[in-house]
Write a structure and sequence with these properties.
Layout: H1 16-34, E1 38-42, H2 47-60, E2 64-70, H3 78-89, E3 93-98, H4 100-107, H5 113-133, E4 138-142, H6 147-152, E5 172-174, H7 182-191, H8 196-199, H9 219-238, E6 247-251, E7 256-257, E8 260-261, E9 264-265, E10 268-277, E11 285-286, H10 291-304, E12 308-313
Parallel strand pairs: 1-2, 1-4, 2-3, 4-5, 10-12
Antiparallel strand pairs: 6-10, 7-10, 8-9, 10-11
The chain binds xanthosine-5'-monophosphate (XMP).
């Protein structure tokens, strides 16, 4: 039997009862698999790793060791949420690594997008490895692999598994979600009591804001991007677009334009809004955001974010523009 193939008779999990049944079954399976050994998990705060973490905390409690690497390229409040939900509410065995300075110094002056991705991916593995080396009695590595990852693993998205882990890691894998589709993972996450904003989070690339702070990343532009993005997310939530639009974010290019603020010349960057809908991310259409909302977001970003003096809306579908700018 191919354990990486979803059996035809497997029902699609859509209800709380089905999710509870799945959770109970996985708890048993995981306990049998790991015994009294420890399990390591890279917890990014994304949907899949969060659901795996919550499930394993239920199954094996403190035998699960979660490592959250903050690469400094997270969105506003994300690392704090991981610490809050997993460290405090679920009382997980959580190691938090503040690696912002390490990542940003390696990325200094690097403007090529693929080079940036490589640096971020490789450094992520290095940091994670260092943490793993400090631990003992760890025999298992948990991963938030889901069924589409298995289907796509040999396809076009090979470059997307930044945040993936070293191949030579001598640990057996624990992958309780590997036969589930994304919508099922969310139903399971709900049943496990994770916060809605975590379970219904929009996709976020492994290299994070690193590929949205266009060109060579600087701290001041990265902070401006993070603040502007937080405003966009807040206003989308207020307008009821939060759960409706597939992916939306800000990108900040590495050029300044002339502006004026309080009667004085104010050179600044542009914040580019991207808001797209898609089913598989291979093609995408642009959301028709009401003008009134665009004006509101523009007013807030230009008033509240240091360094930004213009707001633009990207109207390009994919193709020809990819979803991310880099
Ligand atoms: P593009 O820009 O290729 O994006 O149209 C399609 C989807 O993939 C996400 N994306 C990434 N995800 N690592 C990831 O984990 C990456 O390097 C990466 N690049 C793009 C993007 O956010 C969109 O959802």
């Amino acid at each position: 039997m191919d354990l990486n193939k979803r059996p035809e008779e497997m029902i699609r999990i859509t209800t709380r009862e089905q999710a509870d049944e799945f959770i109970a079954y996985q708890i048993e399976t995981v306990r049998n698999q790991v015994g009294d050994k420890n399990v390591l998990l890279a917890l990014s705060g994304g949907v899949d790793s969060s659901v795996v973490a919550a499930l394993l905390i239920k199954a094996i409690g403190k035998q699960l060791i979660c490592v959250h690497v903050n690469h400094g390229l997270m969105r506003k409040g994300e690392s704090e949420q991981v610490i809050n939900v997993f460290g405090r509410q679920l009382d997980a065995n959580l190691i938090y690594v503040d690696a912002e300075e390490r990542f940003l110094s390696l990325l200094e002056g690097v403007f090529d997008p693929e080079q940036k991705r490589k640096i971020i991916g490789a450094e992520f593995i290095r940091v994670f490895d260092e943490e793993a080396a400090k631990l003992s009695n760890v025999s298992f590595l948990a991963q938030g692999t889901i069924y589409p990852d298995i289907i796509e693993s040999k396809g076009v998205k090979a470059h997307h598994n930044v945040g993936g882990l070293p191949e030579d890691m001598q640990m057996e894998l624990v992958e309780p979600l590997k036969l589930l589709y994304k919508d099922e993972v969310r139903v399971v996450g709900d049943a496990l009591g994770l916060p809605r904003e975590m379970v219904y989070r929009q996709p976020f690339p492994g290299p994070g804001l690193g590929v949205r702070c266009l060109g060579a990343i600087t701290k001041d532009r990265l902070y401006a991007l993070r603040e502007a993005d937080a405003i966009l997310r807040e206003e989308f939530d207020n307008a009821g677009l939060g759960g409706k639009v597939w992916q939306y974010f800000i990108a900040v290019p590495d050029i300044k334009s002339v502006g004026v603020r309080e009667g004085k010349r104010y050179d600044g960057w542009a914040a580019i809004i991207r808001a797209v809908n898609t089913t598989d991310a291979m093609t995408a259409t642009v959301e028709e955001i009401p003008y009134s909302l665009l004006h509101k977001i523009t007013a807030r970003i230009t008033a509240e974010v240091e360094g930004i003096n213009r707001v633009l809306y990207d109207l390009t579908p994919k193709p020809v523009g990819t979803i991310e700018w880099e």
